[in-house]
Protein: ABC-type uncharacterized transport system, substrate-binding protein
Amino acid sequence: MSSRLSRRIAPWLFAIAGLPLTALAHPHGWVDYRVILHFDDRSNVTALEQVWVMDPFYSLTLTEELSRAEGDESMEQRLDMLGDEIAQNLRGENYLTHVTHAGEPVALDDLRDYTIRQNDDQRLVFRFVLPLAEPLALGGSPLAWQVYDDTYYIEFLYEQDTDTPIALQDAPANCTSRVIPADPDPQRVADAAALDRDATAPSGLGRFFAETGELTCPAP
Structure:
């Protein structure tokens, strides 16, 4: 895949990585996502698997760029290369994922097992497993997480057309999960709405518009 293509898709890659650009504003794209929480055989949480479905406009833009790129790679190979670029850009921004347990930050390891493919609606789907740095025993305290672009250029929303925006894999009995809607201060909503495409968004704006996932498991 040519370096020319890499330069042309860079705005999307840097936007979802939360890196500074000169034209960041309130959301100009969105990602529908869901989370699968992985547990080990000791009932510890080990990873947050995520599925990001990019919006139709960005999906179309990127696939058209990929199809026009110079080189002999197949579309599947080009998508793999795009996935590599996205993964590398996200690494420096903690994968846009912020996890706490009992209110304290939880360290994350490097993203693994990532793929990017088109779904039946021709939207690009980026799927990956994000391990915790260490397996985590919940001990009855809630695990919470948010996924957001710090600049709010891209908005992340839990998928609305699924009954399981949060799923549990190998979880102990009686664990419960929920999605807590964002509740931004009206002034922050007004500030975001006032930004145009050429405005620079305040750092940290995305956090105030992020939904929160929460998991609670009873203490053993």
Summary: The two ends are 52 Å apart (CA to CA). Residues 3-17+25-216 form one domain. The chain has a mean pLDDT of 86.
